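Subject: for your reference before the review

Hello V.,

The reviewers asked for a structural picture of the protein, and I figured it would be easier to keep everything in one thread rather than splitting it across files. Below is the amino acid sequence we used in the manuscript, unchanged from the supplementary table.
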Amino acid sequence: MSLKNSKIIIIKIGSSLLVDENKKIRKKWLNSFAKDIKNLKSKNKKIVIVSSGAIALGCIKMNYNKKNLKLDKSQAIASIGQIELMNLFSNTFLKQKLNISQILLTLEDTEERRRSLNAKRTFENLFNLDFIPIVNENDTIATSEIKYGDNDRLASRVAQITNADTLILLSDVSGLYSKNPKIFKDAKLIKKVENPNKELKDIYLKGINEFGSGGMNTKIEAAKICQLSGCDMIISNGLYLNPIDRIIKKNEYTIFTSEVSKLDARKKWIISSVSPKGELIIDEGAKRALKNSKSLLAAGIKKVNGNFKKGDHIRILDRSNKECARGLSSFSSDEIKKILGHHSNEIEKILGYVAKSEVVHKDDMVEI
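And here is what came back from the structure prediction:
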């Protein structure tokens, strides 16, 4: 899907686009970006911006070096910088008569179903009010265990929640290359990717396009989430002025195209989980049953990894540790350890209370 046909567009911008190497805010760039957004809005596009930069702007205000910050101090700096970030957007976008709002999300806001639906409604209401949501990870309260750690995957989750058509990751390179373009002159820009697992298996990603907090690996993970949600994803160089206009006029980017997904909203949400809480290792019989769209029963489970609660996201692996499916567990990890290998009619006797017969119901599971 081209930008011309996209109704909902998510645009992610990194800190390096807002702040240069000399710790100066790139106001000229942001003014040009706001004009691009105005242009998209004039064509009735719904826009969400996922922006990094709170910690970078907080460091500028407090004259701190970002590299020396410990987690608790960085959370305080993020709190200071978030005001600076939103003021910067507000003042710049106001010149173009664009209204903005702020949404701060944590990993759990998108991984927990009820909160994910609440976020979806908030986005829809803001679109109806003609406001542009500016999204950032809530660094002020997120610890390393409960955070995305990069805005690429957060942006892909926002794309999935809003049912977006296209996600644009504005980066400091033109896209995904066959080799590291900063070292190899014969590195080629990969223009289009339809199947990342198949097409990129021979590309050594470490060291290629290492930028931001995630690097290229997280961008490819983000692309997979988008593709499973029926959303295209573009990686493009955002360092130029009017970066969105440049995407429309120049064919210099990588696009990850998505086949129209037939997954329903619940299954899209399950498959897009960034942090599954545990794993179940299953036997060949259970693996065959999953392929035939059957539920996962206790009898086919060989091992449990991790500690998780009822309702948590889990990965389902075969005995070679290859991922077969993802789903929501109907039991806690402790309960599964007691019932694994047993027939469903034995569960009540083993646990001492009435429970479901399926460990992961087929409606709560997506085959990989």
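For the response letter, the relevant points are probably these. The first strand starts at residue 8 and ends at 13. Residues 207-214 have pLDDT under 50 and may be disordered.

Happy to draft the paragraph if you're swamped.

O.
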